[in-house]
Automatic annotation (TrEMBL):
Coiled coil: none annotated. Pfam families: DHODB_Fe-S_bind, NAD_binding_1. Gene3D superfamilies: Nucleotide-binding domain of ferredoxin-NADP reductase (FNR) module, Translation factors. Residues 1-97 form the FAD-binding FR-type domain. This is Sulfide/dihydroorotate dehydrogenase-like FAD/NAD-binding protein.
Length: 282
């Protein structure tokens, strides 16, 4: 069913945008951790994007995406008032949230937006949420104000030191775990190397660690097998068994290899798209 884009904000021009979409059927069921699969046009591929926020009263969901290749570049051509051809969701298992005390939510890059919905859920459950967010520089940092509006603590790291701690989110995480023994869970959403590093950092402290896996997905309903990941030596389907898993059990090397499996095809598809759009086609 086509869904209208009500608002578009270019968070990092040409790289990352936020869309607020009219999707009452999804908004009323969406929970933290859920994602949607969308198609921009008739011949377009199906791409998964996390629900970064949902407003059941207004009937809207928010998505935030990084322009990576052909499909996200096509999505970036749409503006407020345009429609997304079809939007399927909410998909995936929602985040397991219970009253647990202090929860550290770690986000990197576009993953900060996805982590925001999970952090909000933990806050609503009465947990003390510490947000730890990182980007290459201050200009690329997303959702700082949104997280600050409900998280009692927002710790920031930037690679170049332009804001907050100069270094990585894992430096801040390690410092916190060394001094705070009340942390009951760490949740990480972001690039695969960041999630792997978070899991490695928390392991010696024995703190439960949940990661949200962005494996390649096609149908999103457990039929095609494209999203398979190895967790604790078992094959799991990220779309129906996840996307969240125990970070200490995920085979991150295999995930990295599977994500890179179609690089030449993705590049060819993007180059073709660029030529077509430059020549006036879509
Ligand atoms: C559950 C889940 C939630 C996600 N949430 C977000 C989000 O909130 N914001 C965001 O920017 N990105 C998110 N992603 C990643 C997003 O789906 C990919 O960036 C997008 O599909 C890239 O498509 P493309 O055609 O623009 O790029 P391509 O050039 O086709 O691919 C670029 C890279 O994106 C990944 N990718 C490609 N196709 C898929 C696919 N069908 N499924 C998953 N990954 C793919 C691969 O790593 C690939 O190397 C999520 C992925 C998953 C699985
Ligand atoms: S995307 Fe097809 S089984 Fe998960």
């Amino acid at each position: 069913m086509p869904c209208k884009i009500l608002e578009k904000e270019r968070l990092i021009p040409g790289q990352t945008s936020k869309l607020v979409i009219d999707a009452p059927h999804i908004a009323k069921k969406a929970q933290p951790g859920n994602f949607v699969i969308l198609r921009v046009c008739e011949k377009g591929e199906r791409i998964p994007l996390t629900i970064a926020d949902a407003d059941p009263e207004r009937g809207t969901i928010t998505i935030v995406y990084l322009v990576m290749g052909k499909s996200t570049a096509l999505l970036e051509t749409l503006d407020a008032g345009d429609s997304i051809l079809d939007l399927c969701g909410p998909l995936g298992k929602p985040t397991h949230i219970e009253k647990a005390g202090t929860v550290i939510c770690v986000g990197g890059g576009t993953g900060i937006a996805a982590m925001h919905h999970i952090a909000k859920g933990h806050h609503k459950a009465g947990n003390h949420v510490v947000a730890v967010i990182g980007a290459r520089s201050k200009d690329l940092l997303l959702f700082y104000d949104e997280l600050s509006s409900f998280c009692p603590e927002v710790l920031v790291s930037t690679d170049d030191g332009s804001f907050g701690h100069k270094g990585l989110v894992t430096d801040l995480l390690r410092q916190r775990l060394e001094t705070d023994k009340t942390v009951s869970e760490v949740v990480a959403v972001g690039p695969v190397p960041m999630m792997a590093a978070v899991a490695k950092t928390t392991e010696p402290f024995g703190v439960k660690t949940t990661v949200s896996l962005n494996s390649i997905m096609v149908d999103g309903i457990g039929m095609c097998g494209a999203c398979r990941v190895s967790v604790g030596g078992e094959t799991r389907f990220a779309c129906v068994d996840g996307p969240e898993f125990d970070g200490h059990k995920v085979d991150f090397n295999e995930l990295r290899q599977r994500l890179a499996a179609f690089k030449p095809q993705e590049k060819a598809s993007y180059d073709h798209h660029c030529k077509c759009t430059c020549a006036g086609e879509k």
